[in-house]
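Structural prep section.
Before we set up the soaks we want a predicted structure of the protein with iron/sulfur cluster in place, mainly to decide which crystallisation condition to try first. Input record follows.
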Amino acid sequence: MNNASISRKRNNDADPIVVGGVTPFTTIDYPRQLATVLFLQGCPWRCHYCHNAKLLDRKESIPVPWVSILDFLQQRGGLIDAVVFSGGEPTLQSGLTDAVRQVKRMGFRVGLHTAGCYPDRLQKLLPGIDWVGLDIKASKKHYAEVTGVRSSGENAWRSARIVVESGVDYEIRTTVHPRLMDRDRMTDLVHELADIQVENYVVQECVQNNCLRPDYRGIENFPFDAGDIDNIARRFARFELRKTD
Ligand code: SF4
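Run finished without errors. Recording the tokens verbatim:
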């Protein structure tokens, strides 16, 4: 968290969610909106390139109290448009539904960053969400190689179908690390995305300096050239490439 006006304290059991960090103002986490991002603690997966190692364990010894976050948001009414629940994996926390409801009541749009670990919970949450950024990490058969968890592909792809069919505004994005993605794998992935009629797709280059696995850092080497990117882009109504340079 990088705002001194939001204090931390020992975990309060009455807090609906455990927040490990806050970015008070950002323009890049919700399309065309000025947003505050709340990073929820805990994730059931262990992606080799994860750059949020501190958020992976379910317990944070000094979380950001929910009441401080609500105070902060109250003071920022009119200055920010949206609140984004990110992580970790925010749908891990059962209190998310209540937290979303409270933020909506304050008049903010609500964004959700998720890896789709829990499709049933995601489906229940979606009516309260205005925009979803869903990570799809690989084609189904390669999923566990990225996350380290056997059933992860089934859950993520079920979540993708739910998001696409929901009518909620979304982007589906894939983080590309050269150890985990190449042309053949991307071809499989693009076919599967097209099969479920994904329209808005983003490919983002992995920022490698903080990868969970030290041997995944400093490799660089983006595996696609301009022709590959053109071939990917033409399969989607909207496509964006986010490079690190
Ligand atoms: S799903 Fe996201 S937060 Fe969880 S390990 Fe993977 S990259 Fe990290």
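Observations: Residues 19-172 form a domain with the TIM Barrel fold (CATH 3.20.20.70).
Flagged for discussion at group meeting.
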